[in-house]
Amino acid sequence: MAGLSGTTRTRGGSPGSSLPALDGAFLCSPLGGLMVAQAVLGLLVWALVADTTYYLHAAYSWVMFVSIFFWILTVLFLVTYLLQLQLKFYVIPWALVLMIFNIVATVLYVTAFVTCAAVVQPTSWRQWDYNRRAAASFFACLVMITYAVSTFFSFRAWKGLGSNAATSQVSEHA
């Protein structure tokens, strides 16, 4: 799958260069595009919730935790794959790590979406809070779907590595 097991490229074309190269092909891959969508939509979720009086409702603290935590991790994974840093740490089974990350993010975003949607009250005395919370619920649903689709693609990438992730990592770099 594009972006998960690319070839080692260096900036400037010199073989001894240690600068990481940007992998533009990763952004065109399904996982890369989904990571960008997750970063943008996740940012919208926590920005919309943060712009309300969320601290008055304990349920929104959970939504804020999930959205900020997974936004930070998604951005870190995106930078890792864009700079091809996963190639420097070839001992780590990146496809498996990404699949587990996407599974956990999907499950926790389901809880955050349900929590966010359940707490939205149309009779709120602050109409702008209602609108922002409703929009945050909508975007939380979209992020949840993108993580679920990413889980599917990362599962396919993980299965494509072979029957044993440890031996496939060794055989690729031996």
Automatic annotation (TrEMBL):
Classification via PANTHER family: MARVEL-CONTAINING POTENTIAL LIPID RAFT-ASSOCIATED PROTEIN (PTHR22776), PLASMOLIPIN (PTHR22776:SF9)
Alphabetic keyword roster: Cell membrane, Membrane, Transmembrane, Transmembrane helix
GO terms for biological process, alphabetical: myelination
PROSITE patterns: MARVEL
One GO CC term on file: apical plasma membrane
Keyword set includes Nucleus: no
A Pfam cross-reference name: MARVEL
Cited InterPro entries: MAL, Marvel, MARVEL-CKLF_proteins
GO MF, one example: structural constituent of myelin sheath
Membrane-traversing stretches: 21-47, 59-83, 90-114, 134-155
Name of protein: Plasmolipin
Membrane topology qualifier: Multi-pass membrane protein
Domain MARVEL, first and last residues per copy: 26-159
Superkingdom per UniProt: Eukaryota
Transcription as UniProt keyword: no
Residues of the signal peptide: none
Organism of this sequence: Bucco capensis (collared puffbird)
Similarity remark: Belongs to the MAL family.
Gene: Pllp
Cellular localisation: Apical cell membrane; Myelin membrane
Subunit structure: Forms oligomers.
